[in-house]
Known about the structure:
The chain has 26 helices and 35 strands. Helix 17 packs antiparallel against helix 18 (561-573). The protein starts with 5 loop residues before the first helix and ends with a helix. By secondary structure, it is an alpha/beta fold. Mean pLDDT is 92; it is low at 1-21. The longest helix is centred in the N-terminal third of the chain and has 21 residues, at 258-278. The strands form eight sheets. Strands 26, 27, 28, 29, 30, 31, 32, 33, 34 and 35 form a ten-stranded mixed β-sheet that branches. The chain has a six-stranded mixed β-sheet with strand order 1-2-4-3-5-10.
Amino acid sequence: xxxxxxxxxxxxxxxxxxxxxxxxxxxxxxxxxxxxxxxxxxxxxxxxxxxxxxxxxxxxxxxxxxxxxxxxxxxxxxxxxxxxxxxxxxxxxxxxxxxxxxxxxxxxxxxxxxxxxxxxxxxxxxxxxxxxxxxxxxxxxxxxxxxxxxxxxxxxxxxxxxxxxxxxxxxxxxxxxxxxxxxxxxxxxxxxxxxxxxxxxxxxxxxxxxxxxxxxxxxxxxxxxxxxxxxxxxxxxxxxxxxxxxxxxxxxxxxxxxxxxxxxxxxxxxxxxxxxxxxxxxxxxxxxxxxxxxxxxxxxxxxxxxxxxxxxxxxxxxxxxxxxxxxxxxxxxxxxxxxxxxxxxxxxxxxxxxxxxxxxxxxxxxxxxxxxxxxxxxxxxxxxxxxxxxxxxxxxxxxxxxxxxxxxxxxxxxxxxxxxxxxxxxxxxxxxxxxxxxxxxxxxxxxxxxxxxxxxxxxxxxxxxxxxxxxxxxxxxxxxxxxxxxxxxxxxxxxxxxxxxxxxxxxxxxxxxxxxxxxxxxxxxxxxxxxxxxxxxxxxxxxxxxxxxxxxxxxxxxxxxxxxxxxxxxxxxxxxxxxxxxxxxxxxxxxxxxxxxxxxxxxxxxxxxxxxxxxxxxxxxxxxxxxxxxxxxxxxxxxxxxxxxxxxxxxxxxxxxxxxxxxxxxxxxxxxxxxxxxxxxxxxxxxxxxxxxxxxxxxxxxxxxxxxxxxxxxxxxxxxxxxxxxxxxxxxxxxxxxxxxxxxxxxxxxxxxxxxxxxxxxxxxxxxxxxxxxxxxxxxxxxxxxxxxxxxxxxxxxxxxxxxxxxxxxxxxxxxxxxxxxxxxxxxxxxxxxxxxxxxxxxxxxxx
Length: 848
């Protein structure tokens, strides 16, 4: 039973009395406690927003979606009474401006969107949203009412309710009374995985462009129905950091316009004015850059808005009160005041500058339509026999309102080949996607597709390369000439088999995530599936290694359901089937050969818990549950002793630091399991940790560094002696020599090995560290290797770049009857690296 506090109960009772006129409740009055003295549960926040809406005729409350755990996603829209009465007309007129076809006028208000709590444990944001809403709804506040004459304000009080509730539930259970400010107190130390991420442990502030998560998809859908001119993303940073607000740090992406930078500065100066009055510390132009396209500040910026991040010190470690290094106590009340101040200050300047902002916004999209920036005016993405993967790309583009079409029956063009980095002539077919830069979202298009990321500063906050053709592994060309699509839709793909009277077997290609989903559907129905280890030819057609073969033989128990179920599964997964009347092939091996391998149903487990990257766990968890629909067992590392190893076929170690691997008994138990037939998939730092043990794999840099140290000892010169003397002011510049925040490399593949089935002889990886391994000897297979000059795009420090060559990234080591699958890089990175998903699937389902 929910308990109702005395102030709230009195408020509700009075409201029922005859003649009682309800007034707008403050957050304190409604909640029954002073804002800042407790963390408010999400449902109570929404109840407060509903209470304000009930008393505010010029406010609209809208549920635009729900989280994975079923919590509502809500937004409030508030405007002056006059503008509220024409709210729909304002929205439609604004969309006309964003289409490049409309014209602004003196009556066009600026649309300001305030986003709170995208990181769940940065929980001050939602508390601040309640007070900000009250200030805007209060009719006695002459200042805010004046601003609303020129501004429509949208407030999303919590972008990540699941993560926030994880944090608030933890804190409210362990907090002291009064709050304990000592940092080592329980209330300042969240348990794994923390509240930062959503249900699947995804960082939603890295998901704006990719929209892999349901929260992002639903939020961006409604965002694109409004297309605001100003967007603020409220965050928290380290406890001892003062407040940060725009203008942002370098690097700025080159598509960002001078007027966007100018208005950032104007808003920042207004924020500074209020902070100066209060004597609050702050900083600008440092750390938080505008480059990676999938943040809550960059994504709006690349869509014509003034996008900004505001960062308050505190985060999930601050609680209600925490002692800073300067012996001052930072309270939740302080943090709320800071966020409320910058939110209102931003609305103030936006309202004052409404005419300029809307005018520049209008020109932004008109110019995109008629004179797009950048050297490339058209992008052509080749289908290359992979219509399924191209369809996935089409979904991404549609979610971002990027228009595209398809080629003519046959035409010629010349453009930069992403994969060879050379300008070449090529053919365009009717299956190929054609994207013109002459469109409203031209700037976002350019950022997402640029072959080379051009950094103005090497000290950046996130990955520095993400070009869509590399992420999807589809051949692509960037053209300097304007080439328009010839068709609106791709040719229809036949997703069911041609009629063959009682087929001997069904065949399906293996080159996209849809093929994996088809396989997992069959496995869970008990269908026996095989795959071809070598290419073969039937009926004059060539089939590649990895081709799925579903023979009638071995599936007799299905009776008449065999054909119906196979075809239905193919239709659901949208994959193409071939029906064949024989198992006798023209070239290659027949279907009864031992080179046609049976795919076993698998029990797959992944380790999670303290020491393991929650982001890494989340990518795998989401992949299995939401993308391929295959059961996965999550095992907490602290429960490893309870595991029945005979029940597990595949164990995945995500990126992390595993204490049990340092325990000889536990490590031996794991190795014995592999030796007896288990398959261990080790990713990123988990793999490098195994390299430090008795697993027969070695980091290449370890021996190289030993040689370097020996050479330094032998050839010590005066120059070497003083090489360590560096200016303190240059410390950030010096550190980037070892830096690789995220760059794209070409990996040479042995696509005759099952780990690389479905690929050409190359894969494009996002490299985030300098880990590279020595080649495996006779007991293993070097499936994916880096050669010299395999760098393609993104920032890499000079020292790191020199090391990343002539080594192994993806491989399979045979250990007794089992396998160790080596994945030095993350093929599931943030779930937007689409081309890596098949590689990961191969590791799970085909390598045995």
